[in-house]
Automatic annotation (TrEMBL):
Residues 1-23, 86-123 are annotated as: Disordered. This is Uncharacterized protein. The lineage of its organism: Bacteria, Bacillati, Actinomycetota, Actinomycetes, Propionibacteriales.
Amino acid sequence: MTTTHPDVLEPYIEDDATEQHEKPEVVDFDELIREGAAGIDQARATLITHVVRARRAGRSWAGIAAPLGITRQAAWERFHGHVDHAERLLGPADPDTTENPATGPAASRQSSTTDQREEGSGA
């Protein structure tokens, strides 16, 4: 059974006192449906863009899934094709721009500092 939010139906509930004397408004439902569909398409494109950017910045699938209220597996299934396509077009993400502590700028600096210490100690 489908339920409809009361706010959606409110404009269609007739108030007999006012409706008896007013002409019904002509509504172009085709245009309204097209506008709604265009809004959905734009929202989907925006979401995909943000997910791709988040993955390229090192965000985990769990980190992407959390704000969407889905599992990391569901997030991967829904978006991995878009992320893979972006990688094919743009190449791999720059590790210096990632938020992943194991591959981000701080890790690179720490790794080079450790390498310099090892070289200096003759190890």
